[in-house]
Design goal:
8 helices, binds S-adenosylmethionine
Length: 262
């Protein structure tokens, strides 16, 4: 077959596939990432544009990484597999003794953080009780109620042999008393509510909690079409608050990172 015919056939098949995707193929979950790819590729976005400078995963972690992974398969509400790998490698490499997570959900990130901490490391993870959905201090994003309304937090680490490294805390991140952790946290993962108000409040909380010389903060859901509030809040902090001017967006993930380490 000539090169022209191969390319023409590719074009024809792509057009048919696009028609199928738009006519109803999107109803199947497995096809939906294609919509996101098209959306991202053409930059059609009603939400805030990402402004934070990017770094590659290699810039952050170097060329060779070591890590351990467990509970690899993601469900809706978890970080995706590639992101899990980045957190695990980051923890393995930076060896944070005290970690704090806002937003436990099923405990998949909590367990993987604990697994990669040095021996003796501790992880604290805060979650909102389903009974508090209607009494939070700030507005939640309506779409996230399904992650809050679950029978139990941390089901993936319950009964696990590393569960003793994890302390489950309950409360609303806007009103929780974090004072005992101020300046004491080596690694903070912000993945709680995705509303603009919470993203801003949790980020400021994280800024107070991390060790001012060696601390690291990681955020999830930056530049996500589903959670514009996170992008808006982080853009705003990056542009207006010198404490957050070192924020970086990790390429091919929805993570942002701020590290106090040289
Ligand atoms: C997207 S899930 C976290 C996913 C998890 N880090 C993982 O990937 O394994 C968000 C979590 O934040 C919690 N959350 C939402 N609003 C909160 C609040 N105001 N305070 C504390 N936790 C909150 C929800 O209950 C939910 O478990």
């Amino acid at each position: 077959m000539t090169r022209f015919r191969i390319e023409a056939l590719k074009y024809f098949k792509s057009v048919i596939s696009c028609l199928y995707l738009c006519a109803g193929g999107f109803l199947l979950k497995k096809h939906r990432p294609l919509l996101k790819m098209i959306h991202d590729h053409f930059g059609i976005s009603a939400g805030p544009k990402p402004l934070i400078p990017k770094i590659t995963i290699g810039d952050l972690l170097g060329n060779e990484v070591s890590l351990k992974l467990t509970e690899i398969d993601a469900v809706e509400g978890n970080v995706v597999e590639c992101e899990l790998l980045v957190i695990a490698a980051l923890i393995h490499q930076s060896e944070p003794g005290v970690c704090f997570e806002i937003g436990t959900f099923d405990g998949r990130t909590a367990l993987n953080i604990a697994m990669n901490q040095p021996p003796g490391g501790r992880l604290f993870t805060l979650d909102l009780l389903r009974s508090e959905i209607n009494t939070t201090q700030l507005a939640l994003d309506k779409a996230e109620v399904r992650y809050i309304d679950k029978p139990a937090s941390g089901s993936r680490f319950t009964g696990h042999h590393l569960a003793h490294k994890i302390t489950q805390l309950y409360g609303d991140s806007a009103t929780y008393n974090f004072s005992q952790f101020h300046s004491n946290v080596d690694f903070m993962f912000v993945d709680g509510s995705h509303s603009y108000e919470y993203a801003l409040s949790d980020s400021r909380t994280a800024g107070k909690m991390i060790n001012p010389i060696t601390g690291i903060i990681l955020w999830h859901d930056y530049d996500s079409p589903y959670w514009p509030g996170v992008t808006q809040a982080l853009n705003e902090l990056y542009l207006s608050d010198p404490e957050f001017s070192g924020l970086r967006h990790i390429e091919n993930t929805s993570f942002c990172i701020l590290t106090k380490r040289p």
